[in-house]
Structure formats: C-alpha cells, structure tokens
Amino acid sequence: MAADDTLVLLGVIGAAHGIKGEVRIKAFTGDPLAIAEYGPLSDEKGRLFEIAEIRPAKEVVVARLKGITSREAAESLNGVQLFVARDKIPAPDDEDEFLQADLIGCAVVGPDGAKLGTVTVVANYGAGDLLDIATPDGRSVLMPFTKAFAPRIDIAARRIEAVPPEGLFEIDDDE
C-alpha cells in the first residue's frame, strides 16, 4: 500500500509484452482481469494509467494502456505500482474477506494471548501468502497465511490470532 492509506495497491507493471506497447501486470485482485474495472489507476507519483484492453496470461494479465504505443514506452513502466482510491473498492461480502493492505500493522497474538509481533508485509513468492511479522526482539518471521495458522482475524481491532507452526517464533541459538 502507498504511504497514503487512502490508496490500495492493485497491481505492479512488469515486463513489456511484444512490440506494440503492451505490458504484463501482476494483479492483486481476486480475479486478475478485474483490475481493469476500477477505472484509471495511479502510480506513486500521481500519474494516471487507464487499461484499454486486457487479457489473461499464465501468472499475469497482459494489458494495453492508453497512450503507451511502443515497446520502449512499455519497458519504461517496468516496476510501476498501480493504486486505486480505497473508496472505489467494494465492501467485502463476508467477514472472512478483507484487503491484504489492511493486515499491515495488525498485532499477531499467540494462542496464549502473548504478542508475537506485528505484520509488516504480506508476501507471496509463489507458494501462497506469507505474513512477514516483526517480532518484539527485532527479528522478522515469515508465517504462512492460512486459516490453520491464522484462524481469527479482527481487522477492526487490528488483531490476528495465530496458531503458528511449532518453533516458528523461537530464537535459533545457532545463529
């Protein structure tokens, strides 16, 4: 999420696709094609990008952005993050739905109620979502973000009740 919490990160532009200015976009929407339904998207500098055409591709979507007509122009956008105003995102249908951005800053507590840390990042390296949790002693711990390990999430209270894998938060004395 951008420093301004009124914006939500919806995707990241990747490599150029072809020679006519198309780009690959890693979309963070439930349906990757839905990123085009939010209207113009902005980057961190406030530049607006409008998706003119979109189609699915393996792990991404391929899009043509209005005003981007060459491979060189598309290449210059590699790594640009695409945001939308939070008020353009519909409210979740049920209590188990929320924005990943809303998890940032949530306290993570263990089964005994002890604070394990605070979520700093929600990452996905290809095998599922992970919570990057900053522990009170300054370490960073990656915990799988599944119902088994995070059975209760209370966004309003900014709290995640966790049942982490055994030993995950223990200090490794061998380091």
Description:
There is one protein chain. It is elongated and about 55 Å long. It has one helix at residues 71-75, and strands at 7-17, 22-27, 41-42, 48-49, 51-56, 61-65, 81-85, 107-109, 115-124, 129-134, 140-144, 152-154, 159-161. A 6-stranded mixed sheet has the order 11-10-9-8-13-12, with no helix packed on it. Strands 5-6-2-1-7 form a 5-stranded antiparallel sheet. It has a two-stranded antiparallel sheet with strand order 3-4. The chain is mainly beta and 175 residues long. It is built from 1 helix and 13 strands, in the order E-E-E-E-E-E-H-E-E-E-E-E-E-E. It folds into 2 domains: 7-88, Beta Barrel (Elongation Factor Tu (Ef-tu), domain 3), CATH 2.40.30.60; 100-161, SH3 type barrels (Roll), CATH 2.30.30.240. It starts with 6 loop residues before the first strand and ends in a 14-residue tail after the last strand. The chain is 3% helix and 38% strand. Strand 12 (152-154) and strand 13 form a beta hairpin.
Proportion of strand residues: 35-45%
Query: What integer value in Å does the Rg equal?
Result: 19 Å
Summed over residues and divided by their number, the pLDDT gives a mean of 90
Number of strands: 13
| Number of continuous helical runs | 1
> Low-confidence segments, ≥5 residues, pLDDT <50?
none
Layout of SSEs?
Blueprint: E1 7-17, E2 22-27, E3 41-42, E4 48-49, E5 51-56, E6 61-65, H1 71-75, E7 81-85, E8 107-109, E9 115-124, E10 129-134, E11 140-144, E12 152-154, E13 159-161
Parallel strand pairs: 8-13
Antiparallel strand pairs: 1-2, 1-7, 2-6, 3-4, 5-6, 8-9, 9-10, 10-11, 12-13
